[in-house]
Amino acid sequence: MSKEVVIQIEDARVEMEGRTILSLEHLEVSRGERVAIIGNSGSGKTTLMRMLKGYVPCQKGKVVVMGDVFPIKDTHKMKTHHRHIGMIHQHFDLIGRETVWQNVYHGRLGYVSLLKSMLGICSQRDLQICAQAIHEVHLEDKQRRFARTLSGGEQQRVAIARALAQEPTILLADEPVSSLDPALAEDIMDLLVSVCDAYKLTLIMSLHLPELARKYADRILAMKNGKIMWDGSSDSLSNDRISEIYEFMGTNGVVNGNGTRASRSAFTWPYGWQGQPLPGG
Amino acid sequence: MTPPDWSVWDVLLTSAIETLQTTIAGTFLGALFAYPLGVLAASNWTPIWVHLPIKAFMAFVRSIPLLLLALLFVSAVGLGPFPGVLALAVHSVGVLGRFVAEEIEATDPKPLLALQGTGASSLQIIQHGLIPQVLPQMVAHLAIRFEMNLRDSTILGLVGAGGLGFYVFLYVKQFQWQKSGVLVLAIIALVFAGEFAAWQVRKRLI
Question: What is the ipTM of this complex?
Fold first, then answer.
C-alpha cells in the first residue's frame, strides 16, 4: 500500500498582529503516522495544531488537510473538516456539569441534526459508537457520573472517547499529559497510542518531554520560533542529537542562557555537562 | 399591637394569597424578558452596539426605586395587584438580566471551543455547552429574586398596589393596631417561608 498523504503544507505562514508566528516551508504527514512536536512554550506547537484544526487562518502558502484546501470558507465544509479532526487538550475542556456519556455524545453532534439533538433523539448507530468509545477508554462503570467529579486522568480519557466518537482520521493532542502526574501520563500516552493503532488514526501530539516523544512517536518535529528545526524518525534522535537540538535552540538564550526560562519548561536533564560528573558528585 | 385581633383572618388569607400571586406573576413575567435580554447583554456573545444599550437600559431600570415604579403603574393602570405585578416584573428584568449576562460572561470558553471542534453548530453549542454551564446559577438567581420580590411585594400595598401591605396601611390609618399587628405577623411568616423555599432550591443545585 502506498503512503497516503493526509497533511501537506508548503510555505505556509500564520501571522498575527503583523508578526509571523508560524512559518513552515515543507511538511507532509501520511496516514497512520505518529508525530510528536517538541519545543519550548511559544515555539508554535499549539498554533500549528490550531491551524490544522481550522481555528487559526493561515495567510500565505498551501495547506491541504484530508483533501480540503485551506482556507475553508464554506461553513458546511468547515463542519465536515472539524469532524475529521479530533482534538484533545491539556485541560480536557469537558462540560463538567454533564455526564461522561453526554460528553462522549458531544463527539456525535457534528453528525446529528439540530432538531434531533434538541429533542435528544439518538440513533442506534450513535449509541453504539459512543458505547464503543467509552469501552475503548475503560470508563463503562463511570459513564453516568458528572465529568467534573472525575480525576484528571479519567477526564482526559473522556476527552479521548469524545474525539473517537467523532470518527476522526487525524487526532491532534495538544499537551495531552502536561497537567497529569508522570505515572498517569504514561497510562494516557499508552491509551492514546493504542486507540490510534486500533482505529488507524494519524496522531499528531505536542509534548514537553523529549523522552515521551521518543518513546511514543515514530517521527519527531522540533520547533523553535514558529519554524521546524528538525524533522526525523524518533530512532535517529539520539541523546547527543537532543542536546545538539536544544543547544541549537539555546543559542539565543532560550534554554541554556536563561535559567528561569529553562527551569520553567519541563526539560530537566543537564544539557551542558552530559557525561561529566555532577558537581559535587 | 397586642393582643392580636384574629378577626382579620379572612382578610389575611385573601391578601396573603394575593401577595404570593403578585410575586409569582411578577417574577416570572420579569424572567421571561430577563433571560433573552441577559443573553443579548453578554459582552462575549454580542457586538458592543447590542450589549451596551441593553446593559444601560437594565441599569436604568434598576436605578428606579420599586415603590416609585409601583406608583407609576398605579397611576397608569389603576389600584390593585396588577400594577404590583408590572412593577416587580420591570424591576426583575433589570436585576435578573444583569445576573444572566454576568453568568454568561463568566463561562469558560474553552469547552465551547472544544464542542465547536466536534463539528457542532452554534445552537448545538448553546444547548450542550453554554446552558449546562449556566443553568444551575440561573435557577439559583431566580430563586433569590423570587424571595426578594416576595419581601418587596408585601410593601407594594403602601402605594395601593394590592396585597398584605395595603391592609396593613389601611388598619394603621384607622388606628386598629391589633389588626395590623396580625398582618405584620403574616408578612414575617411569608417572608420566612419564601426564604426557606429559595434556600431549598439553592441547596439542591449548588
Answer: 0.75
